[in-house]
Specification:
Layout: H1 18-30, H2 32-63, H3 66-82, H4 84-93, H5 96-111, H6 122-151, H7 157-186, H8 189-207, H9 213-216, H10 224-228, H11 232-247, H12 250-279, H13 288-309, H14 315-333, H15 339-367, H16 373-398, H17 404-425, H18 430-434
Subcellular location: Cell membrane
Protein name: Sugar transporter
Transmembrane segments: 34-60, 72-91, 123-141, 189-209, 252-276, 288-310, 317-335, 341-364, 376-394, 406-426
């Protein structure tokens, strides 16, 4: 597929045969822009997981306090809640490829910021660096979703989501697996440098992507009078437009509802899992990276399994089933006291997580107009990660008074119930699923 081909998702016929499925996968991998975007994601994600794992182990070694570990997640999630609502408005007004490129280059410098200080100042600078990295990620993520929407046709988005999830799983395996031994041998400085290099490599890949300007920057092709309008009122009104679209689109409302409760479990697990390793599994914290890596292997297996299922099942079934099974798995995980059993469960939990992620992307892109993609993604992410920020804050606070396994069990139960409820709330047919898009 030529890099500058104008892709219109409404001109492609449905693909039903196994031969056609194979052809679509082949076409996807001949799409130069998609390969570059997937490569950028894979490289950047490896650096992110390496960086995050190192910080968690490092800070817990320094403080042995759940609150200190939880502060890392608060610093990362806070920009999503504070900046996310308006980031999507600007992303829809800017060239999306340029937005991604600038965000990556700025994050190279921000990653290295903690190396400029030492002693007592380093810990607060780490939190500031993580917050700033999260802030620029709020512009990168919706820009990426908008760019992916125009370089991959609708019938290939399920396969694209599977590839994206596979890249994420590989990163989830490699990043944590090498983070703890490198931390032991070389300290945290190497992690900062590796993450900075990953952002640089990602920027290089994005710089090579070629998309026509009207696709990468749809706002620039509005009427001159409309494009000339500026000011805070326009930003507020455009955010309201995105919010209004989400609230009148049933699919997006159900996604937000289920995602909020799913992030409740994710926030608690991310914040307190390293504490769970030491207190309940009676294992050294240096094994935390291995636990994450095994979860990544499960996610990789899930990407393959659920990628095949995506050809047979509607994306809403993958999302609902994934959330329900994740909740059940977290409840079972909370009862573990043996490290080997926890490893096995982390592997199994990765499978429904992959299904959730593979179904999520196509559900959003298939019902969202191109010109609103940034705002819609920002609304969804703000809700999801804002709730995760609340979860991380509550978990780090309650973790001082309530046993970690009890917190995990409660969160898992809520997540499982959310998944089951969503099975009955999603539209039943593909026609219903996309009906909200027809009015815009």
């Amino acid at each position: 597929m030529h890099a500058d081909t104008n892709i219109d998702e409404h001109t492609h016929p449905p693909i039903n045969t196994s031969t056609s499925n194979t052809t679509e996968v082949s076409r996807l991998w001949r799409n130069r822009n998609f390969v570059l975007l997937a490569t950028a994601q894979g490289i950047s994600n490896i650096g992110d997981f390496f960086f995050t794992t190192t910080l968690l182990v490092w800070i817990f070694d320094l403080t042995h306090q759940a609150a200190a570990v939880g502060s890392i997640w608060i610093a990362e999630y806070a920009p999503i809640f504070l900046i996310g609502p308006i980031a999507g408005v600007f992303v829809d007004r800017w060239n999306r490829r340029h937005t991604m490129l600038i965000a990556d280059l700025v994050r190279v410098g921000l990653t290295l910021l903690p190396l400029l200080v030492a002693g007592a100042l380093r810990l607060p600078i780490i939190y500031i660096s993580v917050f700033a990295l999260g802030a620029f990620s709020r512009f990168f993520a919706p820009a990426k979703a908008g760019l992916l929407q125009v370089i991959v046709p609708e019938e290939q988005r399920g396969q694209a989501a599977s590839v994206s999830q596979t890249m994420m799983a590989i990163s989830f395996i490699l990043g944590p697996a090498i983070a703890t031994p490198v931390y032991t041998l070389a300290g945290p400085t190497v992690a900062l440098i590796i993450n900075a290099l990953s952002f640089g490599a990602s920027a290089l890949c994005i710089g090579l992507i070629r998309v026509r300007r009207e696709l990468a920057h749809p706002y620039a092709f509005k009427s001159q009078e409309q494009a000339a309008k500026q000011g805070i009122n326009l930003v507020v009104n455009e955010f309201k437009d995105g919010l209004g679209f989400v609230f009148k689109t049933r699919t997006l409302l159900v996604l937000i509802f289920t995602s909020l409760l799913a992030m409740l479990g994710a926030g608690a697990l991310n914040t307190l899992d390293i504490v769970f390793v030491e207190q309940r599994l009676h294992a050294p914290t240096t094994l935390y990276g291995s636990l994450m890596a095994v979860g990544g292997i499960g996610t990789l297996a899930g990407a393959v399994i659920c990628g095949l299922l995506a050809k047979k099942l509607r994306p809403q079934w993958l999302v609902s089933g994934g959330i329900a099974l994740l909740g059940l798995g977290l409840v079972v995980y909370s009862y573990q006291t043996v490290f080997l059993a926890a490893l096995i469960l982390n592997f199994l939990l990765g499978i429904p997580q992959a299904g959730l992620n593979i179904g999520f992307g196509p559900l959003v892109t298939n019902v969202t107009p191109r010109a609103m993609m940034g705002r819609v993604m920002s609304v969804i992410e703000t809700g999801m990660f804002g709730f995760s920020l609340l979860s991380a804050t509550l978990a780090s606070t309650l973790g001082q008074f309530i046993r970690v396994d009890i917190l995990f069990g409660i969160c898992g139960g809520l997540v499982g119930v959310a998944g089951l409820i969503s099975l009955f709330l999603f539209p039943r047919s593909d026609k219903q699923l996309s009906s909200a898009d027809s009015s815009l």
